[in-house]
Amino acid sequence: MEDFRRAFLLLCKEGGVEPQESVVRQLQEVWGAAGSTRLDLAGNSLTTDTCAVLAKVLRHDVLFTELVLSDCMLSEEGAKLLLHGLCSNTTVKVLDLKGNNMRATGSEALGKLLAHNKSLRRLVLEWNALGMWNEAFSIFCEGLGSNGCLKQLDLRNNQINHQGAAELALALKRNSTLQELDLRWNNIGLLGGRSILESLQHNKTLLQLEMAGNNIPSYTLKAVEQSTGHNTDRQSTLREARSRTQVLTKEIQNLKDEKGQQALNILSLCHQAHLRGMNSSFLSLMETIDKQRDEMGRHSRTSALHVSQLQEALNERKSALNSLKAKLQMTEAALALSEQKSHDLGELVGRMQMENLELKERHSRELKKEQEENVLREGKRLREVHSVTEKNLQLKNKVEELERRCKAQQDQIFELKQELTNTSAELKLRLAQAEERLGMEKKRSKQAQDDLDNLHKKEVDHLNRHLEETERTLQDRVQKLEALRIQLEEELSRVKAACVSERALADEELGKVRTQVRLEEQQRLSAVEEKLRALRQSRDEAQGLCAQQKQTAAELQAKNSQLALEMDGLRRRIEELQQELTGKEQEKVAEVSRVRVELQEQIGHLQAERTTQAGLKEKIAALEREMKVIASRHREALLDKESEIASLLEKLRLRDAEIQRIRDDEAQRASFLQNAILTYVQGSSLSSYSPKK
Fold first, then answer.
1. Which strands make up the sheet holding 38-40, listed edge to edge?
2. Contact 42, 70 (CB under 8 A)
3. What span, in angstroms and rounded, lies between the C-alpha atoms of 675 and 379?
4. Nearest residue to 89 (alpha-carbon basis) of 116, 112, 59, 125
5. Are 90 and 62 in contact (CB under 8 A)?
6. What are the pLDDT digits (tens) for 281-334?
7. Which of 279, 270, 180 shows the shortest CA–CA distance to 232?
8. What predicted TM-score, i.e. pTM, was given to this entire model?
9. Helix spans in 117-161 (H)
10. Which of 15, 71, 252, 592 has its CA 20 to 30 A from that of 161?
């Protein structure tokens, strides 16, 4: 161990790597402990450089046989270097790499280690992640399959899935030395459990297999336990047969040695008799020689008889062993057949479960589709409602615009009134100016006053009449404009009432109005805009007329007739507008009736869809009932198969009892044979002592 520590420090110095204090301290503790064969570096965080130095040291043989590197936080490169260094080592028997989070690179390096190392007996790989990468784990399984020295392997908590279990099953079929395997707390599942169970039919050396916490059914675990139990029984019977054959061969060798010793004793007696002298009684010597020959013949006959008996016993033993082997093969074949049947039943149950799951998923998908369609329909209807509300808001805005335009027209009418008052005031001012001029003319022409009075009176009367006529015409124009304003206000009130009724209908029939309503609204708006343009034109004409009235008072008479004609045209225009409004109202009533018909059709479609949904629900209920019936049938079939399996297990138990009885008989026969051999040995020893006496 001191040499190992020195080599470690020397390699660290040569490589320019600073040795870790924890590793050096552990090496000193191991060196201080007398006869220690365990190097424990658990919990020490080993760097890549330290792992490289340890790998160089471990390439050669060391004194310790157990290397503990658990929870050392090994990197992928450090683990690879350490495992490559252990490939050529022949002294390390136990390797502990627990809790190092080894992944793809570590799995490949472990596969190479198992393929090349010839001394490793126990390998602990708990709490790693070897099964996450299938290709790397397949390399590890190939190394395990070609290994010929490993006895114990711990693969707990390594995230091994069903594919990794299949690779491990192939390795177990090839391996012939592994005796203990721990696969607890992985993700092997049903398929992986079946693969490993199938591999146990070819592997006859695995005696202990732990597979708890892998989501494997209980019947598969029981079958695995039975297979490992059969392997243990087979190994125990083989050990007993080997021990008994060794005992028999030793006894036969002892008998042969005793025969040779007896022959040597006879020769020594003859030699002693010859040395005592030829003169002594030759006849007595001959008699003793004859007696010895007779005894030798009897001993040879008895020994031949005993040998023949032992040979017969051995033949019987061999025949019994052959019969036991044949029965064991028959029981194994029956067990394999029952396991195959149970495997087929399990596959059938799995297929039925998968079909049930597929049916459930299909129904769930159909229900989800229906729900999504209903959601889409509701969203569509909500969008339609939103569009209708937006239309209502647009209509409200348009109504507000019309109201603002009406207010503007009222303001214009008020301005026209003010202009009329201004023109009347100007006319009065002109009249006053004319009167002033008349007064001045009176002062200037006092002489011709009498002549001009009549003329002036006539002119004044004429002007008064003219003014009265203009005032009357202007009052008529104002009254007509007032009537026009009242008609426009009535039209606005009718439009407002129509908008209110439309809004009420839209609130009642949300989602029922279509694109034609938009077109008709646009047409109605265009008609209203045309009306507004006509009103603007009329306003412009009125303004022009007022300007003409301001220019000259003489043109007022000529333009009164024009205004009368224009008023007639406006009346006709108002009548036409009223007729258009009535037509629009009739069209609107027809459109509302058509929309109602469409809504009734949609309601009929919805009712039909509701009936189809009810039919689908009934079909779903019928399918659920069929699934329940199928599940009950499968349950009954499973119960029948379980009863068959129980009967098969009972038959196996009876066969095991018969095998145990045969074993007891064989043990009794062996004891009889041993007693016979002992009696033969004792008899031969007594017969060998009798000639000496």
1. 38-40, 66-68, 94-96, 122-124, 152-154, 180-182, 208-210
2. yes
3. 99
4. 59
5. no
6. 556 656 776 777 777 777 767 766 776 777 777 777 777 777 777 677 777 766
7. 180
8. 0.43
9. 134-146
10. 71
